[in-house]
Amino acid sequence: MPSHVFADRPDRPQEHGAVDALISQTRRLRGEVDAVRREAGADHSDPAGRWQRALCELAVHQLNDLHGHLAQLRDGPPRTHAPDTGPARPEPQHGSLLSRVGSAEWNLLTDEATWSGELFQILGRDPAAPPLSLDELPSLVHPDDQPMLTVMVTDCLIDGKPIDGEFRVVRPDGGVRQVHMMGEPVLAPDGSTASMWAVLRDVSELRRSQCVVRETRDSLQRQRHIAQTEHRLAVELQEAVLPPWRGSLRFPHGGSANLDLAAHYLPSSSTALIGGDWYDALELAEGRTLLSVGDLTGHGVTVTSGMAMLLGALRGMAVAGTGPGRLMGWLNQLLDASMQPALGSAVCCLYDAKEHTLTWAQAGHPAPLLFRDGTGRALTPPDGVLLGATSGAAYEQAEERLRPGDLLLLHTDGLVPRRSREAATQRLLTLAPRFAEARAAQDCVRIAVEEFGVAPREDDACLLVAKVEA
């Protein structure tokens, strides 16, 4: 009996024109997808990159299968494994699609079984051995999948249901392959089942590729969830520690009438992670006010918690009467002794309203900018290295006398995007005429944000403005 696998079309090659065009399109698309896969890079530490590469590899795998299917459609049906006096057909290349698709027919009237050569290769059987009968076929199947195969074959032979399912095959060499089987019964003239045909496809590589896609997708989702959780925690911690981001700063008990304060925080536009930038204003005894800004390197919850630790220590020591230079020294020791070492910069200013003096120290940080009578200048910085850079470092202090109407601007690196520290200082100083026309510190903050807050920035930044009242 001829094979029913290809009973619906003549045993001759298809017209080549349309099929060859599809083969060319598939080959071109496969090359384009492969180019995208190469562009994804080879950074195995990046979950998104792993997921992209896995999807591309799955797409290439499926396009390879499509290419093979179309080639088989062009070349016509494969020869079944039966005695043949004609010339032998070349064996399909190992690993090609044709080597992963085989066909079979079991004749129930004669008890004959006919297998294609590819099916012997898929199942790991010797082509010289006789094909297995339907009763013998389950012996090749994994024990856990044998009941499923038995049910599919029984439903096909008795109820005429088509076969469409997958099971694992244990090859003689111990290898396990995933096989997809599709088949139908062939009816005799009297309506009884005369035979059953089936096409079996080795889908092991396809299933492995799909598994990699699922695993990388799940890994990417976990990484995103972790990043979102860390971002939320960092934001909550930052909001709990820093004064309000917008508007004029108000001390709990009304504060000194000698300073008008305002501040603003500008997040990075290139990352969703929160950095370690901070600003603070603290009312102290005897008409003194502590102003500070700083920045810890890095992003995320760890850096934000380190910023909170430094800010808490800074406030505590300031309340105890520690001067700015000594404050920087203690903060340096605190970072140096931390379980998670980090580097940071900071500037700390102590304003005495009675004496109209500003005593300040810095640790590798931009100097405060003083604006007076429509002009501006950077204060000359005393010596001070980055926090956490050197154990036991000493920090000098400097003193500046302020006048009513003076404006003091403290900021972190990154306030002026894509500029060096010197260039950023010069850009800020050009705002002096506009600051001179501003009536309040909040107006000055708004001017700076309008000037520098729109452009994309790689890092977060903050600024603190203090205007000396009469």
Structure, described:
The protein has 470 residues and is an alpha+beta fold. It is built from 10 helices and 16 strands. The protein has helices at 16-39, 47-75, 117-123, 146-159, 204-241, 301-319, 324-336, 421-429, 432-437, 441-452, and strands spanning 80-81, 101-107, 112-116, 163-170, 176-187, 193-202, 259-266, 275-283, 288-299, 344-352, 357-363, 369-372, 375-378, 398-401, 407-411, 461-468. The radius of gyration is 38 Å and the shape is elongated.
Order of helices and strands: HHEEEHHEEEHEEEHHEEEEEEHHHE
Major β-sheet annotation: 6 strands, antiparallel
The geometry reads as: elongated
How many helices does DSSP assign? 10
Chain-averaged pLDDT: 81
N-to-C span: 110 Å
Low-confidence stretches: 1-14, 80-99
Fraction in beta strands = 15-25%
Keywords: Hydrolase
InterPro entries: Bact_Sigma-Reg (IPR052016), PAS (IPR000014), PAS-assoc_C (IPR000700), PAS-like_dom_sf (IPR035965), PAS_fold_3 (IPR013655), PPM-type-like_dom_sf (IPR036457), PPM-type_phosphatase-like_dom (IPR001932)
Domain PAC: 163-215
Organism: Streptomyces flavofungini
